[in-house]
Amino acid sequence: MLRVSFKKIIFFIVVLLYGVIFSTILNASITTNSGVSQQWAVIDGFRSAKFGFNERSVYNAIKKDFKVNEINVSRVVHPTQKTVTLGINVKGLLAGSGPSKVFYVFGYKSKKLIHISVVWGSSVEDQPDAEAIISTSNQLRIYFSQKKYQKNEIAFNRQLADGTILVFQGKDKKGRLARLVLNKPIDRDGKAITNIDLTLSYIEKPGNLDIFEIKDGDF
Description:
- 20% of the residues lie in helices and 27% in strands.
- It is an alpha+beta fold.
- The chain has one domain (6-203).
- An 8-stranded antiparallel β-sheet has the order 3-4-5-6-10-9-8-7, with helices on both faces. A two-stranded antiparallel ribbon has the order 1-2.
- The longest helix has 16 residues, at 130-145.
């Protein structure tokens, strides 16, 4: 059964936008491997939705890519970051991957697309297929590993401080980031439990997020 929860969407907006805080943790875990292919990765959005698109253009891209009408697209304004997020439910994004949610995040000042995330797992459905999610994670890792990324800005299968696994991270020539994170909790008996999540994020400017912030001197 799919979950469509306002609170859940808000939670993911917070997590996905602030995912870049992991960068300080990752500095000690980056590999110097720049990719097995000489072809550079181009991280410019997700399918037809490109960084810099306005909301109308993204609505059109969603319609083109997934045949989802505007009435079935959720729109949420973050209460503190003041960013806008469009969200959709997608089935079978990859063969055997199960249901997913796709989020398109627009900058507070620019009103342009700055961040896309795709989520599979317990945040999308009540009883996710852990084996299918891990398989999806491996498929995506293999896919990303075939491209070239900035030297010292690529990582595979790294354990993060909070126990999640950084399956992949890489930056293209323009510094745009792709990140794949697997949250696979382990119970006390050493067995994986059901609240498993896989999050794929594309971020245009990972070091310069366009969100509302209170500046020094404002108060």
